[in-house]
Amino acid sequence: MPSSSPPNLTMASVYKSVSKTGAKPPSPDEPDKKNKQRVLVLTSRGVTYRHRHLLNDLVAMLPHSRKDAKLDTKSKLYHLNEIADLYNCNNILFFEARKRQDLYVWLSKAPNGPCVKMHLQNLHTMEELHFTGNALKGSRPLLSFDARFDATPAMQLIKEMLHHTFGVPKGARKSKPFTDHVISFTIADGKIWFRNYQISEAEVAKSVDPDAPKSKAVETELSLVEIGPRFVMTPIVILEGSFGGPVIYENKEFVSPNALRAEIRNRKAQKYHARTQEKTKREVKMKALGIEEGREKGELDDDVLFT
Amino acid sequence: MGKSKLKSALLQHQGRDPIREKQKKLSRRQPKSLCRRGGNGEKEEEEGEEEGGNVVPELVDIVTLASEGMLKSAMETEEKHTESDPEEEEVQDSNSANRGEEVEEVEEIESDSDIPLSDVSASDLDSDTDHPPHQKLTTNNTLALTASLARISLPRTLLFSETLLVTTPEPTAILDIHDDLARELTFYKQALSAANEGRDKILAEGGQFSRPVDYFAEMLKDDEHMGKIRQKLLDEAAGTRAAQEARKQRDLKKFGKKVQVARLQERERGKREMLERVKVLKRKRQGAETETATETDMFDVALEEAVKGRRGDSRDGISHKRQKKDQKYGFGGKKRFAKSTDAKSSGDLSGFSSKKNRAQFTGVKKRKPAMRPGKSKRAGGGGGRMR
């Protein structure tokens, strides 16, 4: 039985399935036992080179992904569903750049949702990091999740979507049958931290055991070498539909980078404001007392009288 | 407010202020009505979805009913003015207890803590009710979230080799998020445990885990990139080695300077000792015995005296003084033009030293005038003279 059954079956495949059913009745949950994922990966306009490099890194890591041209619009994101449909993708990983500095990540299950919007920061691409780790292109990663992902329903949902997006399904095109890297997601400080490690195996010094040579596999000890990239994501909002629908989760702790920058600017401006205010206050006070600052000294001034 | 005198007298007797009580009740009632508003909004939102739609409106109805019931009871108490405050509290409690059986989501809607700041008027903030001010209204629709999760989640029966998903048994604990080393170590440990667990599970299912040695394929980082990384590592190593070398050189230089200074001091001391010895010698020649001089000094001086005496005492019975005087004032021979130059003397360059000539013009090293020796030296040296 073919692993993927397209909706419009050709005659040959119909015949094949019919003849197979005759031989062996397939269990009804047979097609469910497959993990079929395809990810559409693209960015909005206005990404910087680092954002682009991160995208390239991720595309290299995800053989089940389809990279598309930059999306022109930032407001009509629901068009992404059509693009995903065009490429037979059921996941969308969309990078939205704002003001050429802030990067937002949308993870979506096309076409019916849900979708998650996250703010991506502390971004370091593979090239910048100079890590010595390396892995096969297209090998399937082990996905390591923090147990905190199971604590709240929102995080459970995010975990599932991260799993669909970053987990390479078995038998994906160009995927390799070996596992040589781990992608770990950890929740700390209300953020999701992404790390990618190579699994390096080193043979352990053999213990003098009489039944050791029986086992064919050599005992190896695992250690990790980081590959990169690194980034941190803060969940902002979860929508029920794909790029639309009601808001079912909103992170109230998230402060938008715009607000943060404004706050910093205001704090700086406050200094000047306080100074000018103090100055005018003093001027008013002097005027009220009838003292002019630039006035010539008269005969009866203290400075003249008691020299 | 047309109140009977009897009633007001009663109130006065009980020591209660009806106006204040009314204000209190109003302020207490306001958040509830706000909640009701929020609840209705939620209801509209919920109706949009498939699963949670038929559950939530019912709950909201209960809420509205309950709050209305509370309103009624509050009004009753207001009219009667006989029930005291604690009793009203009890009414509230019983209401909330009834509602406590419902889903927690309703409680979230109900809870007074999540009221947008804009909806709370200033009078509310001024009164005795205290709300923690929240800027944002938290949305955390548990029902919808779980429904969405159920819709997209993969079947639990999938083999491990299909999902390759590992969850840590316990949540990771990072004490200080800004401690880079500890944080990265936590991540590393998490990933390592996942790798070990994953390997065991894959091998248990009979899958392949490690790549054979002779299996070559395109890598995530190409050779050029890896070369760059190697170059970077080499550069770093070279840099650290160079820095170490430089530090060693610097230390050596410092040490060398110390040695040089020590040598100079040694030379200086030798010179001073020499001068002192000469001084002592002179004094001896003058016949002044020094009591301070030690035996060795005396021995030395005697030796030198012997050496000097033989050389400078007198030549052919002529005293040194006479010799000098003869040289100065003349004794025998022609005196005239003795000091004037002639062809031979002007051609004589034996006294010329180019080094000295140069030193004269550059004039870089001017000799310091000899310092007056310290008091202890003077006291030590001139002990004999003082007496």
UniProtKB/TrEMBL annotation, chain A:
The keyword Nucleus appears for this protein: yes
A GO MF label: rRNA binding
PROSITE patterns cross-referenced by the UniProt entry: BRIX
A GO CC annotation given for this chain: nucleolus
GO annotation, biological process: ribosomal large subunit assembly; rRNA processing
Chief location category: nucleus
Keywords: Nucleus, Ribosome biogenesis
InterPro entries, per database record: Brix, BRX1
Transmembrane segments: none
Skewed-composition ranges (Polar residues): 1-20
Location of the Brix domain: 37-244
Subcellular location: Nucleus, Nucleolus
Region (Disordered): 1-35
Assigned protein family: Belongs to the BRX1 family.
The protein, known as: Brix domain-containing protein
Natural source organism: Tuber aestivum (summer truffle)
Automatic annotation (TrEMBL), chain B:
GO cellular component entries: nuclear periphery; nucleolus; preribosome, large subunit precursor
Biased segments, Low complexity type: 114-124
Protein keywords: Coiled coil, Nucleus, Ribosome biogenesis
One of the protein's GO biological processes: rRNA processing
Keyword Transferase: no
Family matches, as InterPro entries: Ebp2
Signal peptide: none
Sequence ranges of Polar residues compositional bias: 343-354
Biased composition (Acidic residues): 43-52, 102-113
Bias (Basic residues): 22-35, 364-378
Chief place where the protein resides: nucleus
Domain of life the protein comes from: Eukaryota
Family: Belongs to the EBP2 family.
Name the record gives this protein: Uncharacterized protein
